[in-house]
Amino acid sequence: MKYVLGIDLGTSGTKTVLFDQLGKAVASALVEYPLYQPQNGWAEQDPEDWWHAAEQTIRTVLEKSGVQPADVVSLGISGQMHGLVMLDEAGKVLRRSIIWCDQRTQEECDEITAKVGYDNLIRITANPALCGFTLSKVLWVRKHEPDIYAKCRHILLPKDYVRYMLTGDFATEVSDASGMQMLDVPHRCWSDELLETLDIDKRLLAKVYESCEVTGHISAEAAKLTGLTESTLVVGGAGDNAAAAVGTGVVEDGKAFTTIGTSGVVFAHTDHLSIDPKGRVHTFCCAVPGAWHVMGVTQAAGLSLKWFRDTFCTAEKEAAASMGVDPYDLMNKEAAMSPIGANKLLYAPYLMGERTPHLDADCRGMFFGLSAMHQRRDLLRAVMEGVSYSLKDCLGILEGMGVAPEQMLACGGGGKSPLWRQMLADVFNCPVATTINTEGPALGVAILAGVGAGLYPSVQEACRAMIHLNPAQNPIEENVPKYAKVYDVYTQLYEANKQVFKALKEMA
Hints:
Helix 1 packs across helix 6 (158-167). By secondary structure, the chain is α/β, with parallel strands linked by helices. The strands form seven sheets. Strands 1, 2, 3, 5, 13, 14 and 15 form a seven-stranded mixed β-sheet that branches. A six-stranded mixed β-sheet has the order 18-19-17-16-22-23.
């Protein structure tokens, strides 16, 4: 039996899973690390934390599984997208990474749009200039930290830094590179036109591969640290959402998934390039060679519930610890005691600004309709419903572009919740299923690794062999109009408060 490794580099931690070639998870390990927020709206992480987490989890899964390292033929890495990693000539990290949810770069986004032109940006990168993307972060460092920029010789994404530490190779792949806003998305290569316009040296950027292509193999030094062998191949891998698509089998037209991780995503596969001229959703190259995906993003999906847990649910955390269960299980039971609409309480999940559909770095989260009658269970349910409504915003735009999914899968931490899945089925008014293997992005990049190692001839065939579904949760007929009524009020919250968000930003 041959084995493949999937490394999922997330915002809260890195999880590594060892799979056999039939897609069965053999062993897994997780290491968490901190998020730094030195100012309101800023978000940074230390790339060394990512590397140490990957090194430790690889070593742990090999030890737990008892699998011979020589039988691990290939690995893939899934990564949180858009983060800026800057290395000097010796390959050393120059500063903490500015990650995907950082919102400091609105001025740089305005500069990009002015110099490149909005229509040209859409034509080349398929997306407008956004604070979350890597390009605006590069310009921010060049403007505010010129000494660091002058020393920079390599610009990498988070997962590609871990690749570099594993192999010594500077490489990336099309799905993650699409989110840097320097890739010509229709042609799947760096855009010389854009880079020249913004005076960015193309030599700073890594070589671009397709997601299932082999980019290198484990170095001698990394083999000693991780327990892998130098013969283990490393494939391109994928950005977290593209990896989740492969891990749920969303690799053909008509298929889509919703993920509720730190951020939330509605993601649909398309064999034909489709771009929203208003830039409300993102079109990227997907992990299937020659295809794309369209996705809407909610900045603070699972993050909203985690924030609520950490801020208000000390009792649930203590009770869960004493019972040996997950705090979220207790929170789900509590939320289920509140009715649809949370007793006329709504939540807008704009803790980190928003991408879809508002493209507004200044909007902020809110509870709307609070009264003395409300209990914590109502706030919990309102958070879960608010995230679901935000994801419905995303789905509506995709359907308007002609990318209408026939099948919806749920993944991510929130996708494990039966309550949240039923909520999505009722809000979307469509069946929502899960995969039997819930490893999502880790399985996705392991599948890509299997294709790169020649275990399967294509991504689609590998998915058919390695992915199996649980029965879907169908919409509950009487719930659908109840949620629709609340959603109608929810859609009015942003416009009613748009100018107030701007005034809040200007407050001293």
